[in-house]
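#lab-general

N.A. 3:47 PM
ok so I finally got the sequence cleaned up, no stray characters, all 122 residues accounted for. can someone with queue access submit it? mine expired

B.Y. 3:52 PM
send it over

N.A. 3:53 PM
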Amino acid sequence: MPSQKQKELGILGENKATVFLQNLGYEILDRNWRTKKGELDIVARRPNGIIVFCEVKARSSKTYGDPLEAINNKKFLQVYKLALAWMLLHGIWELDFEIDCLGVTFQEFGKFSIDHRIAVNL
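B.Y. 4:20 PM
back already:
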């Protein structure tokens, strides 16, 4: 179970990732969509119309590794299954989709960096 500090870091990371994507022209369709099987952090539409499901991982530093290292095959498969469920529920089953991964690393003085991997396929 994540600590309160970890939860707050995760929320902050997702907020930064959302603004980052919006600045790239992505339209945010949904955030923190939950089922009993898990959660989709961000669902968006790229400027080219493709639906993208974004998994966000945030870290307060790289002391314990890159945040994207936390997205393993099991997590990727979970996001994939949740993406299918989201599309089915929203009646857009026929559309293509992709999965992006965003690693947000916070640094001193409120600075941060975002590593955005587009159309990840593990």
